[in-house]
User: Fold this.
Amino acid sequence: MRLRTTRDVLLGVLSRWERQYPRTRNGDYAWVGPTRAKLKALDFATCSKGDVDEIIGNTSWTENQCSECEKEVPAVVEIGWDEENECALARLCPACVRGALAVVSPEALRRARASRGGQPRP
Ligand SMILES: [Zn+2]
Assistant:
């Protein structure tokens, strides 16, 4: 598990952009080079999410979304890792982490055991 903040997302934009759109021998698509140049001019340690979104033209590169509630949040905990796709298996916001803890709380486990007649889950 690890923390992923919106700043972490912003700090990774340029390297992700360069992996997604590597320079080719035949040149870039017309919009790739100018966008790369604008991104390279940004200070990712201090820029806003909006600065990056404006350069790229959409918000998909800067989203920090919870896998459960799908809200855009300032911080999530990343759980698990998908080697093939190089991303977390799940990203949970603090509210959904609290919800997950309630699902496996001692009280919830007692209720589950009582409703199942003390039998373990199949
Ligand atoms: Zn959530």
Summary: Residues 66, 68-69, 71, 92-93, 95-96 surround zinc ion (CB under 6 Å). The two ends are 28 Å apart (CA to CA). The chain has one domain: 2-93.
